[in-house]
Amino acid sequence: MNINLIGAPTFYGADKKGPDLAPNKLRQLGLIGVLNKSNKVYDLGNVYVPSVPTENKFLDHSNVKYYNPLMSLNASIAHLVSLSLKNNYFPLIIGGDHSVALGSIAGISSVYKNFGVVWFDAHTDINTYKTSLSGNFHGMPLAYAMGLGDNEIQNIYSHGSHIPCENVFIIGARDIDPGEKGFIKEKDLKVYSPQYIRKHTIKGIFNEIMKDVKNLAIEALHISFDLDFLDERLVPGTGTPVGNGFSLEDAKEFLSLFSSTNLVKSMDFVEYNVILDKEDITGNLSIDLLNHIFNKST
Questions:
Q1: In a 3-state reduction of DSSP, which class is residue 283?
Q2: HSE (CB half, 13 Å, CA atoms) of 230?
Q3: What is the value of pTM for the model shown?
Q4: 21 Cβ partners below 8 Å, 6+ apart?
Q5: Are 174 and 122 in contact (CB under 8 A)?
Q6: What is the Cα–Cα distance from 12 to 49, expressed in whole angstroms?
Q7: N or C: which end of the chain has fewer CB within 10 A?
Q8: How many domains does the chain divide into?
Q9: Cα-only R_g, the chain
Q10: Which CATH number covers residue 81?
C-alpha cells in the first residue's frame, strides 16, 4: 500500500494544548519506520496552522473557538486527501484533535460519491454551534460533515459534499450531550454503545454494519479513530478520557475486521495529547495500534 502521511498539528478544536504536538511526537517514536514495514510511506509533513492568541479564540465566531483557522486547516486537509485518493494513495491523517476529520471527510466526498464513515469515539461529535456547551469544534465535525450545521462550514471544500446520515456508523459512544441525543433520535443515527457492542460482540457489530454497507451500496469507508474510544485507564495522554471504554485488543479486532474488507481508503488518528501523556504510554500504544492496522501480515 502507498500511504500519504498527513500531519494535522492543531489543538484549536479541543482548546487544550497537546494534540498539536502529536504528529511530530509519533514520528519521533518511530511511526515512519513502522508504517514502512509493509507499505511505502510518503511523509507530506504537517499542514500549516496559523498562530492565534488565546484571547482571540472567539474573534471569528461567537460560538465556535478558532473558527477561521480551523476552516482553513480543514480545507487544506481536504485538498491533500482528495489528491491522495485520486492518485490511489491512502491518506493517513495524524491529528491533532478530532476537528480535523471535517477536512478528511470533505476530501473523500470529492472522490467517492457514496462512501461511509466509521467513527470510533467515546463521543458522537455531532454538536453544532447552537448545541455545543463548550464552543470546542472537536465536538462538532461529524455534525457539519453530515450537513446538520450551517452550510459555510459544511462546504469548506468546493469539490465535496456532505455525507448522508445513514452512511455514518458511530462505535463506542458513551458520553453524549443533550443536543446530540436530539440529533440521534431525529436522524435515526447508527450509534453503537459499549453495552450494545458487548451484548452483540465485536464480530456481530461488524457484520451488522457491513450488511448496511452492502444494502447502501457504499463503495469506500473512512475510519476516524479517536483515542478516547479506548478506556480511560489505557490512555492518560488524551484530552477527554471516558470510562467504560474498550481494550487495545478490542480496537485491534475492530480495525482488523474493517481492514479485511478492502473498502477502507483513508483514516484519521486523533486526540493524542502529548503534554498529558505519562512516560509515552499513549504514544507507544498508538504506535502499536497503527503497526497492527498497517502491518497485518507482520
A1: helix
A2: 26
A3: 0.96
A4: 9, 274, 275
A5: yes
A6: 9
A7: C
A8: 1
A9: 17
A10: 3.40.800.10
